[in-house]
Write a structure and sequence with these properties.
Chain lengths: 403, 292, 330
C-alpha cells in the first residue's frame, strides 16, 4: 500500500513537474532564444585598456536593452571573446563564434590590427561586422559590403583639424610632432592633404620612431620655428612626454592640439594643459548631451570611478544600433541585418549625432573640438566645446591617401 | 649665438645627460650581475618598470614622491632577496649557466609582463609621477625643470658612489675578485655565494633606481620595459660585460648620440644607432670596448 | 601494447597517420579545424627550430623574422606579379633561406649566450625593417585579405583540403628531420652541439655545417610563414616578432629538444592554448613564463626527453648484471 502510494505521489509529482517544465519551455520559446552577437575584443595584450573599457560601456547598454525587452522580443546577448590583441586569435575567435554560436553579427575590436583581420573573415563569410572603435580607413574601402565602421576614420580626423584651423586662425603656422604608428600616419596624411587647401602652413614635421623616450631637442627645434599651433600625436605615454616637454620650453597650452583625448589622456596632461585643445567624438563637456547621455555618464562614473570617453561611448551605442537595425530588419537574419544597417538613419543615443553609413559602410563623419578648462587630479575634469564639424568620409581621397 | 640655437644646444646637453645617466645606471646594474654571477638578466626592463609602476601606485595613493622612492627601493631589496632565494641560487653551480639564466629570466619577463598587463594595463595606458621638486630654473633662455636637475644629481651621485664602492670598499673588491676568478677568490677566503647574493641585490637595486628616476623624468607606459631591456643589453655588450666604467661611458655616449643625431637626422636614425653599434661589437670585439 | 613497440619510429608513424586523418574527422567543426591547421604550422616550425636548437645547439631568436620575410615576399610576388602561390612560396622560401644564411654569417663564431643575443638583435632589426619599408609590407598596418593558395583547377584551397595540405607539410617536415639525423650530416650537427672545438679537431668543417643548418632551419621558418599568412589571412610586423620565436622555442624545449617526437608533442600541447581555454587567456603570459622556468630548471630535456630518460633508467635497473645499457634511440 505504502509503495503504491509513494509510486503514485512520485508519478503525479513527475507529471506536474514535466508539464510545468513544458510550460516554462513554451514560455521561453515564446520569449525566444537570445539573439547572439559575437564580440571579439582586446581583453589581454597591449590594448587591454581599450578592450576592457569598451566592454565596460557595452555592459551598461546590454543590461538596459534586455530589461526593456531586448530586440525583436528576444534577449540580445553579446558573446564576449578575448583576441589578446592578436590578429590570428581574432580570426580564430570570429570563426568560433560564427561556426559554434552562429552569431548574427560580429563586433568588438578596438585595435585596427585585429579589426582588419576580422574584416577579411567577415567579408568572406558574409557576416555583418560592426566595428565600434577602430579608425583605420581600409575597414570601409570600396567594395566593402558587410563591414560598418562607427568611429570616423583617422585620415578624416586630420582633415577635420585642418578645417578647424581654417576657421580659427586663417593662415596659421603649424608644427607636427607625432609617433610612427599606423594611426598617427593616417591622421597626418589626412591633415597634410587638407592643409594647403585650408591655407594652413606646416612649418615643422617631426616623426618619432616607436620606443622614443625624450623629445626635448625636437621641442626646442619646433619652438625655434615659432608656430601658432603644435599638433601632438604621441603613442601611449610618449604623448605626455611630448606635451610636457613642449610646455617646459614655454609653448603655451593654447597652442597645443591633440587629435584625440580619452579621459586617461586628459588626466595625464593634467592641470598644466588647461587651455589646450583636443578632438573627440564624445565628452562629458559636450553641449549636445542628451538626457540618456548624461545618465550614462553619471552611472558609468559611479561604477568605474572615472568619466567615460568616446571609447566607452561607442561601445555603449553599439548594442542600441544593432537593436534598431534588427527591429528594422524584422528577423535575426544576416543578410536582412546587413541591409538594415546599410539603410539605417538614426542618432547616437548619448549625444544625438546622426548615424548613417555610406555604400562602403563608412559613417557620415564628425568631430568635436574641446578646450580643457580644468583638471581635478585623476577624478574629473571640465572642458568646453569650441568647434563641431561634419563631413562625408570621401570628401578627401581617403582610400588612396592611406593604404 | 641666437636664442633658438642656445635653446637647441642646451636641450641637447640636458637630454644627453639625463638619458645617458639613466641608461648608464640600468646598464651598470645589468653588467654587475652579469660580470659577477654570470647572470644576463633579460628581465631587467621589467624590474625597471616594476619600480616605476610601484611608485605610481604609491604617489597615486597620496604618498609624496621622495617617500615613495625610498619605499620602492626597500620593496625592491625585499623582492630581489626573495627572487634570489627562490630561483637564482639554484643555478650558481651550473656549468653554462649564462644561457640557462638568460632563458629563465626570459620566462620571468613573460610572467611579470603578464601580471602588469592584467593589472596596470587595465587601469591606464600611460603613467606619470608628480615631480620630486617643483619649479623651473632658467639657464640663459633655456628653462630647465628643477625635477630634471634633481634626477640628474641623484643619478650621477649614485653612479659616483657605485664607482667608489667597487674600487675602494672591500665588498667592491671582493665583487671584482669573484668576477675575475671565482676559484682564486674562494681560495682567498671570499664567500662566493654571499658575494653572488650581494651583487644580485646591488645590481637589481640600481636597476630599480633607474626605473624610479626615469618615471620622475618622463611619463611611461608598459612598452618601456622592452625598450629599456634591449638598450641595457646593448650598452653592456658594447661597454664590456662586467665593466661598470664601460656601462657608464657607453651609456652616456648612447644618451648623447640620441640627442645629437636628433638635431641633424630623424629621431629614427638616432634611436636605432645603438642596434648597429651592438652588432658591430658582437662581430668584431665581443668582449666589449672596456673589457680587461 | 608491448612497450617494445612504443619506440620513436612507431610513435612517429602513428602521429603522421593521425595528422593526415584529422582534417577529415574535423571537417564538420571549422573552428577546431582552424586550431588544427595552426597546430600543423607550429609543428612544422618547431621541427625547424629543433634542427638548430636541438641538434646544433644554437638558439635562433630570429626564426620568426625569416618567416616574415618569406611571407611578405610571397605576398609581394602573388599580388604584384600575379604568380601562383605554388610558385611564389618556394621562390620566397628559398630567398628567405638565403637571407637567413646571410644574417647568420656574422654570428658564426659566436656560441651560447652571445649567439642568442646576436640573433635577438637581428630579430629586432627585422621587425623594424618590416615596419619601416611600408612599400613592401604596408608597415604597421599589416596586410589583410591574403588570398589562399589555389587548387589545381584554379579554385581557392579551402576547408579540409587546406588543412590536409598543412598536415602533409608538417608530416613531411618532421619526416625529413627523422631522415636527416642519422645521416652523416646529422651526426656532424650533433658533434658540433656537443663540442665544436673537438669537432673541428676531428676534421668537421664547423662553418660549412653551420651554414647548411642555417639554410635548412630558415627554409622551415619560411615555408611555415607563407602558410601562416594564407591560412590566417592577415599579417603584420607583430606576427613575426621575437615573442613568436620564443614561443616556438618553448614548444621545442618543453616537448624535448634533440628528439624528433619532442617538438611535435610540445607544439601539439602548447600551440592550441591561445585558441582554446578562453578562461586561461588572461594568464597566458604568466603560464608561458612559468613553463619556461620549470622546463629550464626541472625538465631540461623536455617532456619527451624526461620520458626517454626514465625509460633508460628503468632498462638499466632491469638489467643490473650487464655492464652497458643501449642508449635510447631518439
Amino acid at each position: 500500500m505504502n509503495i503504491n502510494m509513494k509510486a503514485a505521489v512520485v508519478a503525479v509529482s513527475a507529471a506536474i513537474g514535466i508539464s510545468a517544465g513544458m510550460a516554462t519551455d513554451d514560455a521561453r520559446a515564446q520569449a525566444g532564444a537570445p539573439i547572439k552577437v559575437g564580440f571579439v575584443t582586446e581583453l589581454t595584450g597591449p590594448w587591454t585598456f581599450f578592450g576592457t573599457s569598451c566592454v565596460a560601456g557595452l555592459k551598461f547598454a546590454t543590461d538596459e536593452i534586455n530589461k526593456a525587452g531586448g530586440a525583436l522580443g528576444r534577449p540580445l546577448e553579446f558573446v564576449i571573446q578575448d583576441n589578446q590583441t592578436n590578429p590570428s586569435a581574432a580570426v580564430a575567435a570570429s570563426r568560433n563564434l560564427d561556426v559554434n554560436d552562429k552569431v548574427v553579427a560580429l563586433s568588438g575590436p578596438t585595435s585596427s590590427d585585429t579589426a582588419l583581420a576580422m574584416y577579411g573573415y567577415a567579408e568572406q563569410q558574409k557576416i555583418p561586422f560592426l566595428v565600434p572603435v577602430a579608425a583605420f580607413p581600409q575597414l570601409t574601402k570600396p567594395g566593402t559590403k558587410y563591414t560598418f565602421r562607427i568611429e570616423p576614420n583617422a585620415a578624416g580626423w586630420g582633415y577635420s583639424i585642418a578645417k578647424f584651423l581654417e576657421q580659427r586662425k586663417p593662415g596659421a603656422k603649424v608644427a607636427l610632432m607625432y609617433s610612427d604608428a599606423a594611426l598617427m600616419r593616417a591622421i597626418v596624411a589626412g591633415f597634410k592633404y587638407q592643409a594647403p587647401r585650408s591655407k594652413v602652413n606646416i612649418v615643422a614635421d617631426v616623426l618619432f620612431p616607436q620606443g622614443s623616450t625624450d623629445a626635448t631637442v625636437q621641442a626646442a627645434q619646433v619652438k625655434a620655428a615659432n608656430p601658432d599651433y603644435v599638433i601632438v600625436i604621441g603613442a601611449g605615454a610618449f604623448d605626455n612626454v611630448l606635451t610636457n616637454q613642449l610646455l617646459d620650453l614655454g609653448v603655451k597650452p593654447e597652442q597645443i592640439i591633440h587629435p584625440y583625448g580619452i579621459t586617461s589622456q586628459v588626466f595625464g596632461w593634467g592641470q598644466r594643459s588647461a587651455g589646450s585643445i583636443y578632438g573627440t567624438f564624445f565628452d562629458i563637456g559636450l553641449d549636445s548631451l542628451t538626457k540618456e547621455g548624461k545618465d550614462f555618464i553619471s552611472r558609468f562614473d559611479s561604477a568605474n570611478s572615472r568619466p567615460p570617453s568616446y571609447v566607452e561611448n561607442y561601445c555603449y551605442n553599439t548594442p542600441y544600433i544593432l537593436k534598431e537595425a534588427l527591429q528594422n530588419a524584422g528577423s535575426a537574419d544576416r543578410e536582412k541585418l546587413r541591409d538594415a544597417l546599410s539603410k539605417l538613419k538614426t542618432r547616437e543615443l548619448t549625444s544625438g549625432v546622426p548615424i548613417e553609413f555610406d555604400k562602403n559602410g563608412a559613417r557620415k563623419e564628425y568631430m568635436y573640438f574641446m578646450q580643457i578648462v580644468s583638471v581635478d587630479g585623476k577624478r574629473t575634469y571640465k572642458s568646453k566645446q569650441i568647434f563641431y564639424n561634419e563631413w562625408d568620409a570621401e570628401v578627401i581621397p581617403v582610400y588612396d591617401l592611406v593604404k | 649665438m641666437s636664442d633658438a640655437t642656445l635653446l637647441i644646444l642646451a636641450s641637447t646637453v640636458s637630454t644627453g645627460l639625463i638619458l645617458g645617466a639613466i641608461f648608464a645606471l640600468v646598464a651598470a646594474g645589468v653588467t654587475i650581475v652579469y660580470g659577477c654571477v654570470w647572470l644576463p638578466n633579460a628581465s631587467n626592463g621589467q624590474f625597471f618598470l616594476l619600480a616605476a609602476l610601484a611608485a605610481w601606485s604609491l604617489t597615486g595613493a597620496g604618498w609624496g614622491s621622495a617617500l615613495a622612492i625610498i619605499a620602492v627601493l626597500a620593496l625592491g631589496i625585499v623582492l630581489s632577496l626573495l627572487l634570489e632565494w627562490v630561483l637564482i641560487r639554484r643555478l650558481y653551480d651550473v656549468a653554462n649557466r649564462n644561457v640557462a639564466y638568460f632563458v629563465v629570466t626570459l620566462g620571468l619577463t613573460q610572467i611579470m609582463s603578464g601580471i602588469f598587463s592584467l593589472t596596470y594595463g587595465r587601469w591606464s595606458d600611460q603613467f606619470t609621477l608628480p615631480p620630486l621638486v617643483a619649479g623651473i630654473t632658467m639657464i640663459g633662455p633655456f628653462p630647465l625643470p628643477n625635477n630634471r636637475i634633481a634626477v640628474l644629481v641623484i643619478a650621477f651621485g649614485v653612479l659616483a658612489a657605485l664607482f667608489a664602492l667597487l674600487r675602494y670598499h672591500r665588498y667592491g673588491r671582493a665583487l671584482r675578485a669573484v668576477f675575475q676568478n671565482r676559484e682564486a677568490a674562494a681560495l682567498r677566503g671570499v664567500d662566493v655565494r654571499a658575494i653572488y647574493k650581494l651583487s644580485f641585490l646591488l645590481g637589481s637595486s640600481i636597476i630599480f633606481l633607474g626605473g624610479l628616476l626615469f618615471a620622475l623624468a618622463y611619463s611611461f607606459d608598459l612598452t618601456v620595459a622592452w625598450t629599456m631591456s634591449v638598450t641595457a643589453f646593448a650598452i653592456m655588450i658594447v661597454g664590456g660585460p662586467g665593466s661598470v666604467v664601460g656601462a657608464l661611458a657607453v651609456g652616456l655616449v648612447f644618451g648623447f648620440t640620441q640627442a645629437i643625431v636628433s638635431i641633424f637626422a630623424s629621431p629614427t636614425a638616432a634611436t636605432f644607432s645603438y642596434l648597429a653599434a651592438m652588432l658591430a661589437i658582437l662581430l668584431f670585439k665581443p668582449t666589449g670596448l672596456f673589457s680587461k | 601494447m608491448n612497450p617494445r613497440h612504443l619506440n620513436a619510429r612507431n610513435m612517429g608513424i602513428a602521429l603522421a597517420i593521425l595528422a593526415l586523418a584529422l582534417p577529415f574527422v574535423l571537417e564538420g567543426n571549422r573552428f577546431l579545424a582552424f586550431v588544427f591547421g595552426m597546430v600543423m604550422i607550429n609543428v612544422l616550425w618547431a621541427s625547424g627550430m629543433n634542427l638548430l636548437y636541438g641538434y646544433v645547439g644554437l638558439m635562433p631568436l630570429m626564426f620568426a623574422g625569416i618567416a616574415g620575410i618569406a611571407a611578405y615576399a610571397m605576398i609581394y610576388l602573388t599580388r604584384s606579379f600575379g604568380w601562383s602561390f605554388w610558385l611564389a612560396m618556394p621562390a620566397a622560401s628559398f630567398g628567405a633561406a638565403l637571407i637567413g644564411v646571410l644574417l647568420g654569417l656574422p654570428s658564426l663564431r659566436l656560441k651560447g649566450f652571445y649567439f642568442t643575443l646576436c640573433s635577438l638583435v637581428i630579430q629586432t632589426v627585422l621587425t623594424l625593417a618590416f615596419i619601416f619599408f611600408p612599400h613592401f609590407t604596408n608597415g604597421d598596418t599589416g596586410l589583410n585579405q591574403i588570398a589562399p593558395p589555389e587548387w589545381f583547377n584554379g579554385a581557392p584551397l579551402a576547408g579540409l583540403w587546406f588543412d590536409l595540405v598543412l598536415a602533409i607539410f608538417a608530416v613531411a617536415g618532421a619526416a625529413f628531420c627523422a631522415w636527416l639525423v642519422p645521416t652523416r650530416l646529422g651526426q656532424r650537427f650533433i658533434a658540433i652541439r656537443e663540442d665544436d672545438v673537438l669537432a673541428a679537431v676531428l676534421g668537421i668543417n664547423v662553418v660549412r655545417n653551420k651554414i647548411i643548418a642555417f639554410f635548412l632551419v630558415s627554409l622551415y621558418a619560411a615555408v611555415g610563414g607563407c602558410f601562416y599568412a594564407t591560412y590566417v589571412g592577415f599579417i603584420s610586423p607583430r606576427a613575426f616578432d621575437v615573442l613568436t620565436s620564443l614561443n616556438i622555442w618553448l614548444f621545442v624545449a618543453f616537448g624535448g629538444r634533440g628528439t624528433i617526437i619532442g617538438p611535435i608533442i610540445g607544439a601539439v600541447i602548447l600551440a592550441p592554448i591561445p585558441f582554446l581555454l578562453q578562461e586561461l587567456q588572461a594568464f597566458k603570459d604568466v603560464l608561458s613564463g612559468v613553463l619556461i622556468i620549470v622546463v629550464t630548471l626541472v625538465l631540461p630535456g623536455g617532456i619527451y626527453g624526461e620520458l626517454l630518460r626514465r625509460r633508460a633508467l628503468r632498462r638499466a635497473a632491469a638489467q643490473p648484471q650487464t655492464g652497458t645499457t643501449a642508449a635510447p634511440r631518439t
